[in-house]
Design a protein that fits this description.
InterPro entries: tRNA_endonuc-like_dom_sf. It comes from Rhodopseudomonas telluris. This is TnsA endonuclease N-terminal domain-containing protein. The structure is a single chain. The protein is an alpha+beta fold. It folds into 2 domains: 87 residues, Trna Endonuclease, Chain: A, domain 1 (3-Layer(aba) Sandwich); 64 residues, Arc Repressor Mutant, subunit A (Orthogonal Bundle), CATH 1.10.10. It contains 7 helices and 7 strands, in the order αβββααβααβααββ. The strands form 2 sheets. Strands 1-2-3-4 form a 4-stranded mixed sheet. A 3-stranded antiparallel sheet has the order 5-7-6.
Length: 194
Amino acid sequence: MNPLLNREITYESSLERDLAYILLAHPHVADVQEQVPVDYDDKGITRKHTVDLVATLKNGTKTAFFVKPMKRVNSSGIEETVDLIREQAPERFADNYEIRTGEHITRVRAENARLIHRARRTRCEEDIAIIAKVTTTLRGAVTIQTLLAASLNNGNGFYAVVCLIDDRILDHVGHGLITYSSLVKPHRPPQEHS
C-alpha cells in the first residue's frame, strides 16, 4: 500500500516492490506511481514501454525508475530504451530517468524501509514524545537498546525510535539493519560550505 494516498501499488518483481518501499520511506517523496505507460519512437516504429515507478518529490520534481536485475541490463537494451524515452517523453512526464538494479535496491535498504512503514502504521505520539525528551540529553551515539532502557522499554518503544529516525530527530549510524543493537545519535543537518 502507498500510505501517502492509501492506494495499492502493483509490481512485477521483488526488486520493483523493494524500490517502492524504499521510495515511500524517503522523507522527500510525496507520491509513487507504478506501471506508467509511455510511447516512444524507435527508428520510425512507435513502441510502448511501461515505466516501473515514477516518484514525485515534495518539491514537484519527478524521477522515472526502470528496474532490472544487473545481469539483464545489457541484454535487455534498457539503456537505449531509457535514452529514447528521455529524449521523447512529454515535458512533465519526468525530470530524471534512472535505471535501478539490485546494487541500488539492497536487502538492507528494503528491510529498513519496510520497518519504517510498520512504525508509521503503529505511530504513537505519546511514546515518541517520551523518547524524544531523552534524546535531547544525548551527546553522542547510543544503541537503541540503551535509549529504550532510559526511556520507554516496552514493545512500542522500538517503533517510536524508528519514527524518530524517520522524522530526522535521530540518525541511524551505519548502513546495516535497524535493530535493538543499532547505534543512533541526534540528527545534525549537513553543514553548508561557503
